[in-house]
Amino acid sequence: MRRPILAANWKMQKTTGEAAEFAARFVPLVKDADAVDIVVAPPFTALDRLGQALAGSNVALAAQNVNAEESGAFTGEISPGMLVDLDCRYAIVGHSERRTLYGESDDDVARKAAALFAAGLTPIVCIGESLEEREADRTFEVVERQIDGSLAGLRAESTAELVLAYEPIWAIGTGRTATPEIAQEVHAFVRDRLRRRFGAAADAIRIQYGGSVKPDNVDALMSQPDIDGALVGGASLDPEAFSRIVHFQQGTS
Ligand code: PGA
Q: How far apart are CA 30 and CA 101, in angstroms?
């Protein structure tokens, strides 16, 4: 059984005060949710303050990005060791906004994921096709290329720790969620691809769905056999909405 993992991606939103306010309301709402992993990824600037507000709770801290180097002349960048210093447990890498707006390649993502593992952190590696690619029937080809490229060099012993997030770009921030069936179809394909590469160890890898996950569609998505969690943007900014997502009801879609 894979333990569900529900992660909030705040993107470039919330000040330190707003992050602390979120934690004050959110932590009591989810303290009973002991069968799932709960993760919040604020902007870098709020990591320290949010980390303090989450201390002792069942909510883990994540970064939204990282540099693959440990230190040096990389103006404006943040290293894995700096995230460890702030008690981060996870970092999102290869989000489609980073790939499309900042030119991140599969190779960059692979280097970041490897650097995170080396520092003892868990990468949440994002993949997903654009609308154009889906309409051209290239979804599986694109996803396969992203898996192979973004996980290049992943060591077998790290496999179980890995988290993947399938986020079709056309569903991100658009209110247009993939239907549970469409999402499951791609998740099953991803799992199959992982099995070919890592054997039975692939069954332990958690694959999140992301793209307009909301309180009213999370139950149906989480009822699919290969959907092991959600990476949530817009709906994670509100403590009540994200708490409802954390408390998804499996099998009652
Ligand atoms: P969304 O974002 O939930 O606002 O669609 C998801 C994401 O980009 O991770």
A: 34
Q: Which two tokens stand for residue 21?
A: 């306010």
Q: Which DSSP state fits 185?
A: H
How far, in Å, are 35, 173, 188, 249 from residue 168 at the CA level? 27, 11, 15, 23
Residue closest via CA to ligand 1's atom 1 equals 233
Q: Is 219 in the pocket of ligand 1 (CB under 6 A)?
A: no
Q: Are 187 and 195 in contact (CB under 8 A)?
A: no
- Going from the Cα of 211 to the center of ligand 1, the distance in angstroms, rounded, reads 5
- Give the distance (Å) from ligand 1 centre to CA of residue 200: 30
DSSP bridge partners of 37: 5
Residue whose entry in the numeric block shows the structure tokens 């981060």: 88
Atom of ligand 1 nearest to the CA of 214: 3
Q: What is the pLDDT of residues 73-108, one digit of tens each?
A: 999 999 999 999 999 999 999 999 999 999 999 999
Residue positions annotated with a catalytic role: 95, 167
Pick from 124, 176, 213, 221 the residue to mutate for probing ligand 1's pocket: most ligand atoms within 8 Å of its CB: 213
Tokens of 135: 């309409």
* Three-class DSSP category at 177: coil
221 lines ligand 1 (CB under 6 A): no
- DSSP class of residue 44? G
Q: What is the pLDDT of residues 36-79, one digit of tens each?
A: 999 999 999 999 999 999 999 999 999 999 999 999 999 999 99
Answer yes or no: are the C-beta atoms of 33 and 247 closer than 8 Å.
Answer: yes
> What does the alpha-carbon distance between residue 171 and residue 177 come to, in Å, rounded to a whole number?
5
